Amino acid sequence: MLEDRATAVSSATRWPAAYPKGYAVVDVETTGLARDDRIISAAVYRLDARGEVEDHWYTLVNPERDPGPVWIHGLTSEVLEGAPLFGEVAEEFAARLDGRVLVAHNAVFDWQMIAREYARARREAPVRQRLCTIALSKELGLPLPNFKLESLAAHFGVVQQRAHHALDDARVLAEAFRPSLRAAAAGDVRLPLLECRPLTEWSDTPRIGRQASGGHGGQGHGGWRPSRKRPACPYPNPGRYETGKRLKQGMRVAFSGDTSTERELLEDRATEAGLHVATSLSRLTSLLVTNDPGSGTSKVVKARQFGTPVVDEAAFGQLLRDVEPADG
Length: 328
Hints:
Rossmann fold, 6-stranded mixed β-sheet
């Protein structure tokens, strides 16, 4: 296995010249998963080019709203009441991200939550690339039972002390990322780096159909959206999804209707897994994801006509955890 060679490369002078010069291992806890949810705590471990810890930082953040699933993160309204607003920690947070690759477990989620907070503060996060440790684990072929953080930690013998506490989650990820990075270097593995697209076209007009909640500085929240131009899927379409089997890289996936997780996040997760996100449905579509298969949307109607397989959002989330690599 590649990780068996990591120890040797850690002390060697050779290191892939194309690898980044520094990393910011990040974890955020949030009020939920939707577009309007907020960060309530954040942690950053800064690492050097070879994954050694330089320093770490942690902060609570007052979301100016209900804290969400307290039973998961343990942060009550009383705890967060005296915490700084995101705008008050944005500069220090940015200083710890600046010039580094953002590393996170399911990095698209952490990046989008961070990018939205900066958009609300009328700023832009200084992040140009991100690296998902789930994607890196797949590139390395690590024999994990699943892609949960606890499984990655157990593989490298890292002990979790406080799950769903941003600082401890970031520590655990930093300690698991170091041997992963060294294993990648030892095997000349290309790191799965992705571009971080900043959120654009800020508007003070609340989104139609969404209840305006308290935004930063007591103002109503605005609308925002990332650039939707995506790189072309590099894999050929292997055909339709078959019930009971795995998704395969290159499959064309379309979405229809409302989702509990925001659509852009689901689409980015699909893209990072190697799927082709289709904006319309055709006979070539491999799978339709919808929580309302009985609706009369054009995509649902076409799916019935073409016999396109349909799954709901929860099932799709499970399928994304184990996508089969493309042939060749």
